[in-house]
Amino acid sequence: MITWIKDGELVDPRSATKKKLDIVIKKGKIESILPTGKFNPPNTGDVKIIDASGMIITPGLIDMHVHFREPGEEYKETIATGSYAAAAGGFTAVACMPNTHPINDSRSVTEFMVERARKANLIKVYPIAAISMGSRSEALTEFGDLKQAGAVAVSDDGRPVTSSELMRRAIEYAWFFNLPVISHCQDLGLSNKGVMHEGAISTKLGLEGIPAASEEIMVVREILLAKLTGYPVHIAHVSTEGSVEFIRQAKEKGISVTAETAPHYFSLDHTAVIGFDTNAKMYPPLREPKDVEAIKRGLSDGVIDVIATDHAPHSPIEKDIEFDKAAFGIIGLETALPLTLALVREGVMDLTTAIAKLSYNPASILSIKGGTLEEGKEADLTIIDPNSEYVLQKDSFHSKSYNSPFIGRKMRGKAMITMVGGRIVNDKLNIEN
Amino acid sequence: MSDINLILDTADSLIEISSRDIKKVPTLRGKSIVNFFYEPSTRTKASFEMAAKRLSADTLSLSATDSSMVKGETLIDTARNLQAMNPDIIILRHSSSGAAHLLARYVDAGVINAGDGIHEHPTQALLDLFTIKKKKGRIKGLRVVIIGDIAHSRVARSDMIGLRKMGAEVTVSGPPTMIPVDVESLGVKVMLDPIKAVKNKDVIMLLRIQLERQNKVLFPSLREYAIFFGLNTQLIKGAKKDVIIMHPGPINRGVEITGDLADGPFSVILDQVSNGVAIRMALLYLLIGGGKGDNLD
Question: Per-residue DSSP letters for B211-269?
Fold first, then answer.
C-alpha cells in the first residue's frame, strides 16, 4: 500500500523548496519526493491517490503552545478533542502547557498526558512541564525526570516566574537536559486587576487596563537572564511593539532568545473589546494598531520565530458572564492557518517563511521530530487549499469549545488533509471513502 | 444630542408633578419595573423607585443580598428568570463594567443602566446636564471641570461624554494616578493642578473619593488628598463668580469638599437629587409610556 500525493506544490522551509513535486509515501514514511509526472505507480498493489492540484503540501504544522485542559477541566477540552481540533486545523503536533489541574509538575501527570495522547491516537501531543512546583515560583520541578517522562520544554505558562533567581536557575538547569524554557511575561503588580490593554479603549469602556510595560518588563528580564547565563530563553505570546524591539536588540547582540506570537495579535486590536465581547479577552490582551504593525514587522524580519495559537478553550460558564469576571483566552487551532495565510496575501511574509513559523521553527526550538519534508522521514504533512473560502461558524469547530472572536468572519485557506505517520487524520478530500 | 434634549425637555415637563399635593399620575399604570441593585445605593435606587411610583408603575426592588446571586446564580440566569415574569423595565446597578450590556442581550425588557462598574452611569450624567441647564440656561459653551478619581469613576465617564455631546468644554483634574490613559480621546483637557483647573470655570463637578476602593496606591491618605485636591473656599476663588458646585453623592465632608462649601450658596448638590427623580420619570415615560423613545441608547 502506497500513497501518492500528486500535482501539488510542495513547500519545505528547511530546504527552501517551493515547487511542484509529488510525494510517495510507504509504510508511514516519505518514500520519495519527485517531479510531477515522473512517478510510475506500480501495477500491483493498492495505490491511494491524493489529487493535490491547486493545493500546497507543507510539513505537518506544529503548535508549540496549546492548553488541552486535561487533566482537570475536561468539560472545556480533552487531549482527544484537542487533538481532533488540531488535526482539523492542519496540525500534526502540539505542545501542551502545564496549567492543568493538577499542574503538570510531576512525572505522573506527564505520563498521564502521554498515555491520553496515545489513546486518542490522532496527532503527536508533547507535554510541557512546569518550571516550578505548582507554578508557584518557589521550587524547581524535576526537569530530568519530567524529560524522561516525555516533557519537551518547561514553562509556568499562565503565570510568570515571579522570582528572578528561580528563573535564572531554571534557565541554567534546563540547559543540562536540553529543555527549552518558555516564559509567560507578565509583571503581576503592573497588570494588577487589568482585564484588557490599557489605552483609549479601556478608558472609554471603564475596564481596568494592562499596560504594555507589564509584558515588556519581563521580556527585558528574560533577555538579561539569557545574557547572564548564556543559555536560551523562549518568549511566549509576544503582543507589544516594545517586546518586539527589545527582542530585536537582544538578537542583534547575539543573545540566545527566541519568540512566538499568536494569530490574534496580528489579526485584531483592542477595539475588538468594544461591546464587552469576552471572546476578545485574553492574556496578553489585544493591543493597539501600532503593536499589531510591530508584530507583523517582527514576523517579516525574523524577530518572531514562531506562530503558536495559545489555544485556550473555555466554556460558556467562564465566558458568558461579566467581562471582568470572564476567563482569559480563546481557541486558535482551527483559525491559525487561514489567519496566517492572510498575512502572506498581505505581503507581510512569503509562504515559505510563514510555514517555517508554523512547522520547522517550533520543531527546532523544541528539538522534536517533524517540521520538514524529506525522504526517509515520517510522513507528517498537511495539504492546504489556500483559496477555500468560508465564513467561520460557531458549530464548525472540532474543539469542545467555541470561544473565538473570529466567528462570523470570512476566512480563506483550509487544511484539507492532515497526515500523521502516513495516516490521514483530517480528510476533507474524502480520500478514505 | 437630540435624544438628550428630548429627555431633558421631557424631564422639565414632568418636574412639577413632584411638587403637587398628590404626587402621582396614571401614565405607567399596569407596567412593572424591576430595580435590580447588585451594589449598595441610596440615591439612585430611591430615585428610580420614586420616579416609577409617581408614574403609577409597580416596582420591585432586589439587592444582591436578597437575590439568588448569593446562591451562586449567574447574572444571565437571574436575568432569564426575571424575564420569565415579564417586566417592562429592568434597572440594573452592578459592579462589573458592561453588566447592563450583557443583561440587555438576554432579556426582552428594556434595560436601564443605573451604574456599571467604572464604566458609565448615564442617568447621573443626564440629571447633571439637566441641573446645569436649569441653573445656567444652557450647556453649550460652558466651562466645566471635573476633579477627582476620573479613572475609576463611572459618573465622570458619563459626564465627560454627555457634556462634550452638548457642547461644553470639559477639563479633568486630579493627581496623575487618577487620570486615565488617553482620556483626551474623549474630547477633554487635562489640567492636573486643581488651582489652575478651576480658573474661570462655570461648573465644578466633584467626585466621591472611594474610601472602599482606595488601596493606598493611588494616593497616600485622605488628609493629603484634602490638602492638595479638595475643594475649599480658597480654591474656589479662581472660578467664575456664579460658579455652581456639583457632586453625585455621597459626599465625604472634609475630603473632596469642605462642609461649608457643600452646604453653601454655590452648591447645587441637593438640586441634583431632586432633578434626578424628574430625569428618571422622563426616561421611564419615554421608554414605556407611549413616548417616542424606543431607541434611546
Answer: TTT--SSS-S-HHHHHHHHSB-TTGGGGS-TT-EEE--S---BTTTB-HHHHHSTTB-H
A 193-212 → B contacts, CB under 8 A: 198-200, 202-209, 211
* Residue A173: Cβ within 10 Å count: 19
Q: How many CB atoms lie within 10 A of CB B219?
A: 17
Report yes or no: B154 at the A interface, CB cutoff 8 Å: yes
Residues of A in contact with B96 (CB under 8 A): 322-325
Residue of B nearest to A206 (CA): B119
pTM equals 0.94
What's the pLDDT tens digit per position in A64-98?
A: 999 999 999 999 999 999 999 999 999 999 999 99
Listed residue (A53, A69, A2, A27) closest to A403, CA to CA: A69
Amino acid at B139: I
Pairing of strands A423-427, A410-420: antiparallel
Upper half-sphere CA count for residue B222 (Cβ side, 13 Å): 14
pLDDT tens digits, one per residue of A152-182: 999 999 999 999 999 999 999 999 999 999 9
CB contact under 8 A, A206 and B117: yes
Q: What is the pLDDT of residues B121-172, one digit of tens each?
A: 999 999 999 999 999 999 999 999 999 999 999 999 999 999 999 999 999 9
For chains A and B, count residue pairs whose Cβ atoms are closer than 8 Å.
64
CA–CA separation, B31 and B9 (whole Å): 23
Low-confidence stretches of chain B (pLDDT < 70) are 66-70, 211-216, 291-297
**CATH (one of 3.40.30.10, 3.40.50.1370, 3.40.50.2030, 3.20.20.370) for B122-266:** 3.40.50.1370
Using alpha carbons, list the distances in angstroms from residue A193 to A189, A198, A205. 9, 11, 15
Q: Do A208 and B96 touch (CB under 8 A)?
A: no
Q: Which of B166, B106, B172 is nearest to B136 (CA)?
A: B166
Pairing mode, strands A2-6 and B244-246: unpaired
CATH architecture classification, B2-117+273-288: 3-Layer(aba) Sandwich (3.40)
